[in-house]
What does this fold into?
Amino acid sequence: MSHFPAPLGRQLDGLPPEVRADAEAALGYMGHTRAENTHSAYSSDWRLFEAYCEAHGFPALPAPPGAVVTWLAWMARPTQESDPVQPGRPAFSPNTIARRLAALNARHRDHRLSPPGDHVEVQKVLEGIKRHRGTAPEGKTPLLTEDVRRMAGLCRRDTAAGLRDRALILLGFGGAFRRSELAQLNAEDIQVPPGGKGLIATLTRSKGDQQGAGRAVSVLRKEPDLCPLQALREWMEAAGTGQPGGDLADAGPLFRAVQRNGRIPAVIRHRRRRGEPLEERPNRLSPRSIGAIISRYAAAIGHDPASIGAHSLRAGYVTSALLAGASLNRIQDVTGHRAIETLMIYYRHSGAWEDHPSSLL
It folds into this structure.
């Protein structure tokens, strides 16, 4: 007699001992079908839908199409201060609304229910929102080479936090990294090939590599005020992790939180909820913290912090490289973009003023 399918977790008690361990491992693998960032976003999206349903008397699971279409319309408009779920918030972008519907679909599939996004009415409402509002990407202001030089120059090299921030900025720009990629890097992921031309940063997973095949990013050595390798050496020495590509005294997260007393522990203790015991976890800067660091230094050189994100370094690398005459294919080798069409968006923006026809008028 087969013990599968039906929700696997409910059947562990009925499994023979010789296969129970394999079934538990299967549950673990099921939990890794989505990237951590996607899982976190989907969880947040589901909590929002649950709150909306609770406030308006709808069942959340399974969700009736009527509840879903009103939820989509609610997200597409600003709310009043009297709104019971999210008072006084601006309208969400069509791209965010589409992602939240994808999260709702995923939750239904996880429970072997028909995804609400398959209903014609839901599809028509989403398409109408896209047509009415438009789906142009909400790009962040790119931080160009001179911006990065100025930001790095503001980092205090007599403090551990300043050395970390400088390494973060220069490596983020020099490797065109996403903030999630910078957050996942470990000290052992940095190698320095013979010849001293730069470093190799190995990403075990990234947005374009959901299966975890890994990708090696070459980061060129530059002049001292823009050099990621030199900045990493200074930071890793301060953090006590060793040297890039050399003997590591302390493997683990590359970018870590610095305590107020200047200590940089390898692990930190925290509790998930009040009343729960303290747990130890690696002292790793979160993507959100990295974004805040980038925005703070960009604001210090005169940028509007609302227009800046950690993606600004990646966008700035691509834009600066295009303005300098680099080929799209070579830029793609660094950024890991799967489609050259995505890079063409940066190309169109960077070249908007070059050979402008109005200059002939």
Q: What stands out?
A: The mean pLDDT is 83. Strands lie at 190-191, 198-203, 215-220, 267-270, 279-282. The chain has two domains: 34-133, 145-302. The longest strand covers residues 198-203.
